[in-house]
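Ex. 9. Protein: MmgE/PrpD family protein.
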Amino acid sequence: MDYLDSFSAFAAGLSFDELPATVRKHAGWILADTLAAIVAGAAEPELRSWAALQPSGPATLVGLGQQTQPVLAALVNGTAGTFLEMDEGNRFARGHPAVHVLPSILALAQERRSDTQSFLSALVAGYEVGSRLGAASQLRGSMHPHGTWGTVGAAAACARLLGRDAAAMRETLNVASSMTIATSKRTMLEGGLVRNVYAGLSNQNGYLAAQLAGCGFTGERDGLRSLFGAIVSESFDTGKLMDGLGTDWHLAHNYFKLHSCCRYNHGTLDALDALQSREGLPAPQDIERIEVVSYSLAAELDDTAPRNTLAAKFSVPFAVATRLVHGSSGLASFTWDAVRNEEVQALARKVSITEDPAMTKRLPHERPARITILDRGGRRWVGEAGVNRGDDAAPYTPAELEAKFLELTQRAWPAAHCHEVLDATHALCAGQVSMEAWFLLLRQAPAR
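Predicted structure tokens for MmgE/PrpD family protein:
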């Protein structure tokens, strides 16, 4: 039995009700948080225009009150979930496992009328497969992580939902490895909205990979090693892939986001928050310049004049400026109004960011940043952050996560319905609500 046999057997045999209670509870928050990101993203005008073109079918476009074909629901919901940069992530995977998995199994579970345990087992199996592949790989520097290993995670989740055995799971993973896409990091840096489709394509292609494997299609003997060892990735470490499999759960080491932007901004924003708590912040008009020092990935986000809301979410100068002007780094600080705000634009031009190699070496356990603000009177304001808030080492409280869920979902639904969906999602994970009752709640049309 090689590593891929063992990996496939793990995914095929995973049972949600046999997981530790703490893992099951945390999976409930991941499910709720990802669902909220999808609902909120579905309110964006580009997404709504696209959704209106889809044919009818049995699977829900969450937050839109529409039904379409399952494979298209996987695509559209997966795209919606990344629009606002509020979906959870995993620092070891260096990406966002849940949004690459949930839309595919939401669609498939509705199509197949799956039971709760199969659905939740599939969610965890897909998360672990995708996240571990991300951790074991070193994607080429020019690639965006969305749309890569997440495709295999989605396929694993669909195969688990369908009850595939270990051999069929292996074949599904091998098929899926050839269905990842070529992604460009420049899309996120330049604000190319096509970047949001990458996760949608992972869900669509993962769904298709499971379908194809069930029809007799085959892949390479070891597609994971082939793809991630030589094609999209510089290296593939099977030791990291298998380390702690079934005992050390990647989903328990995830992070949640309250800053409405790329995770690479969060160290700087956490440093600003800490500085404000300690000694306050200068008024934007009193600032002479701002210097940020951080790790390599954050230093790439150096655009001082982002062209749209997506580019703004991948800009440290903009994130700092909008946080200082608006007093918040939430959703409202990354809208078109914020991007067009002349005060924010002027302040962003005063922000510089550079890499500190010593900070880069602290990855992945920390994502550090130091911000220095120099005001017109000559005073220096300095804030620092190491572990980012939202990580398992510095988690948000349940109350903070609930507030985030309600803020996001109220972009589409009335407050009372949002509370009902959150309660039902946790109850689903506790075995107290049926899949059909939960799906019925998700079919709610947006408030007009």
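Check your answer against this statement. The longest helix spans residues 21-41.
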